[in-house]
Design goal:
- It is found in: Membrane.
- Keywords: Membrane, Transmembrane, Transmembrane helix.
- Belongs to the nematode receptor-like protein srg family.
- Pfam families: Srg.
- With about 350 residues, this protein is mainly alpha-helical.
- The protein has one domain (about 25-305): Rhodopsin 7-helix transmembrane proteins (Rhopdopsin 7-helix transmembrane proteins, Up-down Bundle), CATH 1.20.1070.
- The protein is built from 13 helices and 4 strands.
- It has helices at about 25-40, 45-55, 60, 65-90, 100, 110-140, 145-155, 155-165, 170-175, 200-230, 235-265, 270-295, 295-305, and strands spanning about 180-185, 185-190, 315-320, 325-335.
- α2 packs antiparallel against α4 and α12 crosses α13 (about 295-305).
- The radius of gyration is 23 Å and the shape is elongated.
């Protein structure tokens, strides 16, 4: 069933029929499966617990690290998006409710306009955060003794960059009409685009392309620098490769999807839309999982109740800076800082 929008002004009702070609039980199963991994699996529980650990439970440990300060903003954005995702997917994947609820959604959608603004704003935030995270890892290798001070000095401006810059992509959505259209046996929100060329998909394609460029460039330089270091850290190379490869795969898929959404919308089907949703889930759910797996200190603070001082001794690399000498010393000390396993 092909839906065609036919209105003359923003106050007209958008009447649509629910698509009965979808099997209700299969669609409900899709909804249950997606919500089952969104809430406990990553976007809700893990992002919340990481945010709580970084900002409250062990703030003295993590808020001194610019990487974890920036990463905590990603946790916040992902946690915020879960509410929008659950609401949207509930009405999208439950066909029995469509005939009952759809008459209440024929008019202009103020609430779902807010939902769309939050979701699109949050997506752009995540692309900026990804660029900053990989750039932070590169500067960690380039300036091992000064990168923390360099980043913390500019942290306020970075917060503005992360949360304020995406507002430049929201304006066309704010002034446009948001309506509902049938999708997957239910219905989903769409907007009319007051300014035809200013598509959200094109804005997001720009930011995701920048994030992908930073990911590949910074990762390549970082890995090359680690390999050429006299005392290279093999574990760091391995975990960096795994984490960045994971992120890169997700962003490559998203970049491809956004390219089609931006320039060839007439070629798209519901399957493309579903792949795009799952690609975001792939990044959002997997990001906290990867971070916990590769970061020993974070894994310890999230899942263990004993104080860090009671743990077994471990080897860490400590950078010691003096006025005339900068050297790396491998010391055996009690676990008290960040380490990568």
């Amino acid at each position: 069933m092909v839906f065609v929008l036919n209105i003359t002004n923003d106050d007209d009702l958008v009447v649509f029929e629910c698509d009965s070609s979808y099997d209700p039980w299969i669609e409900i199963l899709k909804c249950i499966l997606q919500i089952s991994y969104l809430i406990p699996g990553g976007k809700s529980y893990l992002n919340f617990i990481l945010l709580f650990t970084i900002w409250f439970k062990h703030r003295d440990t993590y808020l001194t690290s610019p990487f974890f300060v920036i990463y905590s903003t990603d946790c916040f954005v992902s946690f915020l998006m879960i509410f929008c995702d659950i609401i949207s997917r509930f009405i999208m994947y439950v066909p029995p409710l469509c005939p009952i609820l759809s008459p209440y959604f024929f008019g202009p959608q103020i609430f779902f306009k807010g939902v769309m603004i939050v979701v699109n704003h949050s997506k752009t935030c995540k692309f900026i955060i990804q660029s900053l995270l990989v750039l932070n890892r590169m500067t960690c290798v380039m300036f091992p003794t000064s990168h923390i001070k360099m980043w913390m000095k500019r942290m306020k401006w970075l917060m503005v960059l992360i949360f304020v810059t995406p507002a430049a992509t929201d304006w066309n959505l704010v002034i446009s009409r948001v309506y509902m259209q049938p999708l997957f046996g239910g219905f989903a929100s769409e907007y009319t685009r007051k300014v035809p060329w200013a598509k959200q998909s094109r804005f997001q394609l720009f930011f995701i392309s920048v994030a992908l460029f930073f990911t590949i460039t910074c990762y390549s330089y970082t890995l090359h620098s680690l390999i050429t270091l006299p005392h290279r850290i093999i574990t760091a190379e391995r975990t960096l490769t795994i984490a960045t490869a994971y992120v890169s795969i997700g962003y490559v898929v998203l970049a491809g999807m956004q390219f089609f959404f931006a320039f060839f919308p007439y070629l798209l089907s519901n399957a493309f839309f579903a792949i795009a949703l799952l690609s975001y889930d792939f990044l959002n759910v997997g990001s906290p999982v990867i971070m916990i797996v590769v970061t020993e200190s974070l894994r310890h603070h999230v899942f263990r109740s004993k104080p860090a001082e009671q743990e077994n001794q471990s080897h860490v690399f400590t950078v010691i800076k003096s006025r005339r000498l900068v050297s790396y010393l491998r010391i055996k000390t009690k676990f008290s800082g960040f380490s990568v396993s």
